Structure to design on (121 residues):
């Protein structure tokens, strides 16, 4: 659950920076990937793969948030499943060291911001 919240927080933190211009999911995924690339030491090929995974995740999360607004009992487990799928796919793309860096990086997101990130539709 902590990983879901950390990942969701990351997505919403990055989208908050662009809230005034309402970027597309592709733009949000690109920004997230640009943030992760130096942290994880991604090469160009992996940057492209991570961006594709992130776009897919954002699309799924957006649909879940739209469909289950106001129904936390349904929404949160579905978001958790999307986060788990993202981590599984990310682990397949990244090297072991890069994935470990991702896990460490995701764990640094402040816990008090998690409720805010998950609550946003």
């Amino acid at each position: 659950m902590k990983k879901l919240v950390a990942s969701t927080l990351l997505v919403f933190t990055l989208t908050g920076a662009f809230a005034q211009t309402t970027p597309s999911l592709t733009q949000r995924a690109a920004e997230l990937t640009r943030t992760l690339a130096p942290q994880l030491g991604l090469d160009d090929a992996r940057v492209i793969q991570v961006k594709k995974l992130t776009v897919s995740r954002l699309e799924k999360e957006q649909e879940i948030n739209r469909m289950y607004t106001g129904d936390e009992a349904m929404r949160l487990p579905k978001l958790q499943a999307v986060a788990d799928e993202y981590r599984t796919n990310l682990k397949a793309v990244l090297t072991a060291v890069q994935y470990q860096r991702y896990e460490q990086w995701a764990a640094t997101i402040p816990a008090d911001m998690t409720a805010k990130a998950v609550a946003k539709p």
Remarks:
- Residues 2-119 form one domain.
- Residues 111-121 have pLDDT under 50 and may be disordered.
- The longest helix spans residues 44-67.
- The two ends are 18 Å apart (CA to CA).
